[in-house]
């Protein structure tokens, strides 16, 4: 008797269908690089606190940021913050709040440090901190008062 060897034909799976089913639907990717101004400021303040700044300085940073938020009226993102926002803020402090140039400059320096930090961390791609600078202030006059007696005593 003859023995018939039947070999089963291996069936290859249809890879096309397997691959199709495993594909994820293409959806718009969520950009995890979008940060709100609040998120960036909170990260900035963590860095400032680790630098060992005085409590009063930390408090002032928060106050200055609150003033900026008051002007902006809404939270912005790193994608839509502009130089014009900060130039408008400077005008707001000078004309609407009627703050002294010295006070305005302190607040400008605080916000420039914040935006510079954001640019350094590449959260903000444009160096907008370079486009808004402290305003001109009247030169302080330093008056040295000498009495004739103290002048003669020195000499």
From TrEMBL:
Keywords: DNA-binding. It holds the Pfam family Phage_int_SAM_5. One of its GO terms (molecular function) is DNA binding. Residues 35-119 form the Core-binding (CB) domain. InterPro entries: CB, DNA_brk_join_enz, Integrase_recombinase_N, SAM-like_dom. It comes from the Bacteria. This is Phage integrase SAM-like domain-containing protein. It comes from Neobacillus novalis.
